[in-house]
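Record pyruvate kinase, 598 aa.
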Amino acid sequence: MCSDTDKWVRLRSDLEALTVALADAEEQWSSWLAAVEPGQLGSARNLVHYWAIRQRDLRDLQLRLAALGLSSLGRSEPHVAATLYAVERAVYALSGMPWRSCRRAPAQPGEGSRWLTDRAADLLGPVAPGRRARVMVTLPSSAADDPDLARRLLARGMRLARINCAHDDADAWRRMTHNVREAARSASGDCRIVMDLAGPKLRTGPLAPGPKVVRLRPTRDLLGRVTAPARCWLTPAERRMAPPDPRMTSVPVPMAWLLARRDGETVTVRDTRGANRALVLARCGDGMIATVERTTYLATGTPLADSCTVGELPAVEQRLLLRAGDVLELTKDCAPAPVGPGQLRIGCTLPEAIEHAEVGQPVHIDDGKISGRVIARTPELLKVRITRAGPNGSRLAGGRGVNLPETRLPVSALSSKDLADLPTVLDLADVVELSFVRDATDVEQLFGELDRLGDDRVGVVLKIETKQAFERLPQVLLTAMRRPRVGVMIARGDLAVECGYERLAELQEEILWLCEAAHLPVIWATQVLEQLARRGRPSRAEISDAAMSERAECVMLNKGPYIEEAVSTLDNVLRRMSRHHYKKNALLRSLHSWRPDQ
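=>
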């Protein structure tokens, strides 16, 4: 058992070692610190201080400090040196020893938090009353032609509108931006436009199209009895019209044939299997609704009555069925791959993946629904042994994401499309998001393009979605701090696939800590209230996730049929949680939930 003297000596020694580590870290990172924007220098220095103390295991020291009623350094992110020096001074005082003066007066507690608050407001705009975190919404394509959508989203709490440049085109982006700005002007509010550069897309190539056929299937109960007939929309082939119910399948037929049909008429058709089916017609404007009591397959060219045939139908999207143990070939050839027994081959949109993946490296496909390992490589393809799929196999379509977390791909985060889009983005956006960041050179390239285009206005958000970016996060952040208006997005979808779902909670915590130390705002993204946005009802788990998101400066929702309800729910959750938490700190407001029995 150590004496009281030994206890104090050990505490003073441990704290002195940490203060020395701060100075050593500044020296070690001096070239990075020298390049940051002058207004960011205090924050950059605090970032390397936090890096320094987190190189050590502080858990034993924390317990000893907490036993004395002192700060355990667990909330030191925004002001590392100030916290450390205050604790050191208290320990010296408690042990009866005079405290030496520090070599440089550190930022005072609270100053770092103010810097973060100010930078978040500068980059992301003001917060809504009663909230600390802003709400960002990814706009659907319909936002280009529906001005009222932006007004409704703003009324429910949206403060940033995000446009994904992987979809639509410059004309649609301009209309979306105009609608949002007009809605904000009408509401006398502020809504920032965020545009996400598409980045290099590593996806599966197309599969050969399937037959041009539709299946009409009635609804049956558990005894196989029809409870609702199948319905389809017979539309004039010459000018196709949307069905009155979006769930109906459209079947084009000649307009003259449609006009000759009578309301309530029954048309007998021989479907693709040679089965006779009776379609009952009901007039609806210039089209007709056809109902049928038995499953029916109609293809392009299927004969109807009076020498009429079904018009051109879209091809059925085909998929590969993959099971654990199968070998999938990922090829440079992105021509539509044939689908058939034993043909497990699909293209890869990024040839560099084929050239640089190594045998033994993992491959994750379709958000990790399918996983495998490279077992062979040729100049033209990778052979991937599937190690994980659904219990009955998983179906793989074209255009699905491919992640190679251990493969070093020599591609720029800025694709040729991004470079072409950038002038338009700078004309429209308040903030540009950089996808597929892996290291500091990706940030430098974007900044170089912004300088070349003469822009010093737009804010920049770096999407942390790769394993490489996470592993190099201090360097990425210090490079980002060469500009005054920067932030980070935790893109949890790809990050979970790349690093493993079991590590996601740990990774997002570490990113939040490091960004708070750098006083940089964070956007919490991917699958926030996704079930609510898509299906109209949230899961219990995603409500808890939404509550955790309050620790970021902004929370992003993805589009969906129920996006307006999702915005309202998120707004409600964030307002409630802002009264209980700020970052790591529990806020001890008075609680009125519990009362003694009356």
